Amino acid sequence: MSADGIQIPNLHKALPVSGKASATLQNIKTYMESKEMNIDKVPQLLTSFGYNTVPIRQNVAGQLIIDAKINTVEGAYILDTGAGTTVIDAKQVDTLKLKLNHEEAVLTGGGVGAHGMENIPSHNNTIEIGNYKLSNISVAVMPLDTAWQSLASVGAHDELFGIIGFDILKSGNAIIDYGSMTLYLIQQ
Fold first, then answer.
1. Measuring CA to CA, how many Å separate 56 from each of 28, 72, 77, 183?
2. Domain residue ranges in the chain
């Protein structure tokens, strides 16, 4: 395998992981360092493995923001590795063409320190983050007014549709490069 002219023979065998989608940024950096390769080549190496790149930006409150399409509708979302599931603001139900399953509604915490809120699932949705695509995903729908008010109180007035959580990040074997503010996702 080659990444930008660097010959990397049997890299998958050398990495202590199973399959190309399991390679982590640290595994790759460790391998490259052991072969005295330039760490600056990691982005090219990841894209040579098939990872898609997604730019990340940071709002004034410090949250990471990405653009994504849910059911073909583009919007801005907080990227939250600590959120177990992807959550959509209840105000976006019609815009995102979400079909709610009220029979499965539950009360949830809604994050650290939050009080019980009704969480209504919506199934059979699609998501696109850059060139990374998933179909038949479920999202949680709940009012996020309190979160948006908290962000506004510190000057973050971005129009946000929701929160992309660990469920989506895990399915794409996400790697976040904070130095370059890039999210890497690979199609499984």
1. 21, 20, 10, 7
2. 2-49, 56-172
